[in-house]
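Batch manifest, entry 17 of 40.
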Amino acid sequence: MDILIYEHILGGGCNENPSPAILNEAKLIVRSLVDDLTREYPDSKISLLTNKKNKNILSNISLVFIDHSASLIFNIVSNIKKNDKVLILAPEENEIMYKIVKDLESEKISLINCSSDFIYKTTYKVLTNNNLINSNKYIIKIYSSYKNIDKNQSIVAKSNDGLGAEKLFIFKNREDLENNEKKLLEKHIFQEYIIGDVVGINIISSFDKINILSVNKQVYKKNSKNEIFLEKIIFGEFNNMIDIFKIFVRNILGNFSGFYGFIGIDAIITNDKKILFLEINPRLTTSYIGLHKTLGFNPIKLLYKQDYNYDVKDNKVFSVDITNDK
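Output type: structure tokens
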């Protein structure tokens, strides 16, 4: 069994040039993932399907170059054998991840990914919240118009299907938003700003079992007066609260089916320890880069060894600045 990885940013799939931060995240994820897959499957060939222009920035990785005269699906299908597996890393924005996975499902390709149905339902934040029928106590209401939020309330504006944390804004109140309305896109949605820490939960699911790998703190920094971006991840910061996060994760995912492999859930934890849902990432996320170090073992083991014994409370706590390429 060989494994072919396709990462959309490095594959040249974006119509526009990605920001340096997004490009750097993609490189960090791919390097960590290839290292872990190679360690766990030393007799398998681990390859990355990528744009030829990346050959000098992805050292020590087996590369397969995309033929841009053919479709992406053709490129993938023509570069794998019968029993090989494919892992897709792509943004949810504009249904990119959904469409790739759905087309590969139609080709009967063996994927290390969530189902296209799960990806679709978690691509749009409004649709995701509408599916959380058994999770009302965790929901922060979403508004299509900021005018439905009290004019004195601080407001979060984010894209309904955004790429990472891009175009994420916090406004002091309605007046502040209206003075900066030109920054917003048509697909922005709005929520009341809740004071608390942003939490990223690393999860792996296979054989109908859900395992939490790490409960991290996500540290954001201002990019401008209103815009913020993810600067740092503190791995294991909230692992001591694993019991309440287990309840939260099972409640949220209990509204869905078709989740498989590495996924993430973002939330807010308030000063009084209340957990509020933000979004589901139906894919391996940037925080993968620190999982091996915080766990003390290769996280790939858990794809097919769900009975592997570990306790997240024993994880190493450390931080990674994802804005630096090291």
